[in-house]
Design goal:
The complex is a heterodimer of chains A (290) and B (126). Chain A is mostly helical. Helices cover 84% and strands 0% of the residues of chain A. The radius of gyration of chain A is 28 Å and the shape is elongated. With 126 residues, chain B is an alpha+beta fold. The chains are: A mainly alpha (290), B alpha+beta (126).
Chain lengths: 290, 126
Amino acid sequence: MIGQSKDVPMIVFSVKFYEWLLVAYPARFRKEYGSQMVEVFRDCCLRAFRQGGMNGMTSLWAVTLLDLIRSLITEYLHKETSMTSPKFIRLSGWALMTGATAFLPFFITNMLVLTSYSPLLRGWYILDLIASFGVVYGSILLPIGMLGLRARYGGQVGELGKGILMAGALGGGGFVVTMLYGMKYFAEDISVFWVIFVAGLTLQFLSLLLFGALALVRKPFRRGNGLPLAAGLSAPMFIKLSAIVMQVRFFVSNPIFIIMSAVGFIFMTIALIRLGYILQASEPYEAAGI
Amino acid sequence: MAESLQNPEEYLPLTPAVFNILLALADGEKHGYGIMLEVEANTKGQVLMGPGTLYGSIKRMFQAGLIEESDERVDPEMDDPRRRSYYRLTDLGRRILRMEAERLVSQVRIARLKKILSTEFSGSGI
């Protein structure tokens, strides 16, 4: 009976056509499950034909085509994340850690400016140059870290959280481009450069701050849900203080501002390194999106 | 290969396809077509899965360590000599299935408290 049904031209043609349609799936998925899918579809054809003849086959094709479209979308979306997420999330965790560390020379030079020791130091300009590179390097890595946070924890913090992190990453990315452009063309106009610098970083850390507030409510991390807020809160404070100091030398000798700035920076660095560590050690969320 | 999450609760809630596939495998290993038939029967045709959804879900469940492939063999209940790949639940898969079922039971309990369910369901002892 099955042998006879199998040879019905309608079934033979349907199976062949379905096999041909499978070309649309990602190659890896097709290679792994294609033959099983064809076999299952053949079983469905046999049953549909036995139970409903031509009408049964028409209904089967309607259901199968819908299923094909839906699963194609899912597979391509999943392929995109599965190819990038686990590795990207791990790397973005490291980006967050090294990005936070890269700001250290900048912090040291700022402290030296604040304490007026900088002119006394031999090789000050080298340190200043390293600090500038550190800022560029860190500013490139932090948006990558934010994209990693978005990829890993986006599902838990919802569309709002994802939007916030994306805004921060885009702001950071835009800031880096502007800063690099500014280094070349606005070298003599430090105030423009500084405004762009502060605005860009503020946008990044404002996003981190908002994400931090959301993380307190939605608790995407198993531990350390206050980390993004700690990083987001302390950094703008530090930047603001640094901005004031750089532009208005009035506070240079004020020890309270120096201490606050140092504490803010240390909090930010620790929070970002810890956050990066959690991110790189985490398993990809996509596994939960089953 | 498996990319299991450390916290099983992060898997929940399951999609209807995943829940029903796990449920179909709860009483023993099955091949793809067998899973499809059981899901259709269990849901009275409400969850219709084509091969794309079935194997897409199987792939992700396999990656998540919820199911594993046992072996390839002929189904003695089918008048067909084709060898088929069989799938079975892992311990994690069984645990996730139980957690999801408990989650659904608690939802039903709330629905019952709010008198959403008809009397037919009220005495089900859930």
